[in-house]
Specification:
Elements: E1 4-5, E2 8-10, H1 15-20, E3 28-32, H2 40-60, H3 63-69, E4 70-80, E5 83-88, H4 89-97, E6 111-119, E7 122-131, E8 134-145, E9 148-161
Parallel strand pairs: 3-6, 4-9
Antiparallel strand pairs: 1-3, 2-6, 4-5, 6-7, 7-8, 8-9
């Protein structure tokens, strides 16, 4: 069952307030059943909350938020200019924690959720974000575990410099 489309773009300020306040009809979300008692829109909201925690972890260089957003067995994989990068959640959290906080530095937040597709207790989110001077295209595979959505796999691609 396909329901509607969901797209949200934010450049400055608190992404959470703008991104999670409602799911507007200009946004892109696709739903596929079967669904449990919860509505798929509730799941979409919970997934967006997980994405926000993930983004906040990067923007704030917050190790605890990395662990909150990711499943303990998740993998983070993609190509950086130096080549293929493959990390566990622990490795990724250490990397994130070692970066200066963009929030503290007063940098502008950039998060664009391009697509969100939910299939039962799994979901895929494609998003763009600016991090450590680059514009990233991330594909997040999510699982619903104990009524909580977590990221199980992150594939990333560097599109170019941040702000592009």
């Amino acid at each position: 069952m396909l329901v509607s489309i969901l797209r949200k773009k934010t450049r400055m300020g608190d992404v959470r307030a703008q991104n999670l306040s409602c799911i507007a009809d200009q946004d892109y979300v696709r739903f596929r059943g079967p669904f449990n008692e919860e509505s798929p829109m509730d799941d979409a909201h919970k997934i967006r909350e997980t994405v926000q925690v993930y983004f906040d972890s990067l923007f704030e260089s917050d190790v605890d938020k990395v662990h909150a957003a990711f499943h303990p067995n998740a993998k983070i994989t993609g190509y950086l200019p130096a080549g293929l990068a493959e990390m566990s959640v622990q490795d990724f959290a250490h990397f994130v924690g070692a970066q200066p906080s963009a929030k503290t530095a007063g940098e502008s937040a950039y998060l664009e959720i391009i697509a969100l597709e939910i299939a039962g207790a799994t979901a895929v989110v494609q998003l763009r974000d600016d991090y450590i001077g680059s514009r990233f295209l991330d594909t997040l595979s999510c699982l619903k575990v104990d009524d909580r959505w977590v990221i199980y796999n992150k594939l990333f691609h560097v599109e170019g410099p941040a702000g592009g």
